[in-house]
# Entry
Amino acid sequence: MLYYCSGKLPAKRVHRHLWTWPKSHLVAITGAGISVESGLPTVDDMVAGVPLRSLFQPSIWREQPLEAFHAFRVIAREWQRKRPNRAHLALAQAEIPIITQNIDGLHRAAGSTRVIELHGNLRELRCDACGGIFQSELAWREQLPKCPTCGELLRPGFVLEGEEVRHIARALDWVTEARGLLVVGTELQMTPVRELYEVARRRNVPIAWVRDHAEDWVPYLLGQEGGSDSLFCPGEV
# Structure
C-alpha cells in the first residue's frame, strides 16, 4: 500500500486512520528534500566558485585539492549554522530510525540517535592509505590536511561518485524488520538505495512517500499535528 504526500496539507483531513502501527516499527528513508526548509544549498549551486556537484567527483580531490578543500571548509562552516526543521524534529521526537542519503548532519542535530548515514557526513575526514577517521577540524589546521597517523592527504568523510554507500546491509535489515516505511524528500532513483523501497514494497508494508513540504507532512503523519487525524497512529497493523 503506497500513499503519495505532496503539496500543502488539506484543510480537511480526509485520510484519517488509513492504517495504524506501533511507532517503534516505522523506519524513515530521507533525502535532500527534507532539508530544503533548513536553507541548505542544492547540488546545482556554486560554493566558493566550485559547483557543489563537483565536490562529489573523485577527480577534483586528486587534481584540485586546494580548491576542493577551500570549498569544503566553506560548506562545513555554513552547514554548521543551519538548524533542523520541523520534519527533522518530528522524526527525532518520535524516535524513528532513520536511513538518510544526506551528509548535513541535521538528523543528529535534531536529536535522532538511530541514524544510518549512507553517504557519510561532513563531521569527518578519512585517510584512504591507512583507513583512519578523524574529525573535520583538521581541515582548518592546514590548507591540505594530512593524516596524523601516516602523513597521507586526507579526503572528506562523505561518499564520492563511484564509491559504495555505507552500512547498506544494516539499512536493509532495518527495512526488512519494519512494519511501515516513510520516504521523505528523495526519489530513490539510484541503486542500492532503491532496493530499500523495493524490499518494503515486496513485503507489502504501508509506505508513505512525502515528495515535498516535508516540514508540514512529517509532523502530521507522525501524529504531532492535528491530533487523531494522523495517518500514523500507535496500534497494531
